[in-house]
Amino acid sequence: MTQIAQKRPAGGPVNALARQAAAALEARQAANGPQQYLTFVLGGEMFAVAILNVKEIIEYGNLTEIPMMPPFIRGVINLRGAVVPVIDLAARFGGAESQVGKRSCIVILEVSEADSRHDIGVMVDAVSEVIEIPGSEIEPPPSFGARIRADFIQGMGKVAGKFVIILNIVKVLSVDEIALLAQVTSAGADGA
Prior knowledge:
Layout: H1 13-31, E1 35-42, E2 45-50, E3 54-59, E4 73-79, E5 82-88, H2 89-92, E6 105-113, E7 116-124, E8 126-133, E9 138-139, E10 153-159, E11 162-167, H3 169-172, H4 175-191
Parallel strand pairs: 2-11, 5-7
Antiparallel strand pairs: 1-2, 1-8, 3-6, 4-5, 6-7, 9-10, 10-11
């Protein structure tokens, strides 16, 4: 009995899987080098976002509130002619709305989803500093015990003996999920 070997076309499933595995390995190796993060305080906890996503940091103020939005959408600001939504991260994580203090500010982040880029502002209690965290000092997100959804956490960075929660901004600021939550809120307000 003879066996007939099937030839797979170039770019077929086996090659696609091999390409994905190679890309994942490259990403892990690149992650082992130090990356820069902007750290900030929110509700007494230290958080970080990749510095490459940060466009600018501005003083809190000049917000225009939008009626019938979820509580975590504080409003919009005019940033050089562009309308930028501002998200209250504490409320987005399921906590109480942040109180505006002397050091409160808005961090403007650029979020890439699918083929589009969006600027979104996040309200934080205070910006701390830009730090480098080597990939070897980043642990995977905890499966339980965190005060925020596990998919919002990219990793836990060890800095000076303490953990910094590194946020996955694509998940935290998912334009599709925020739009869906806004629709649910406005539908609930219409039915009330």
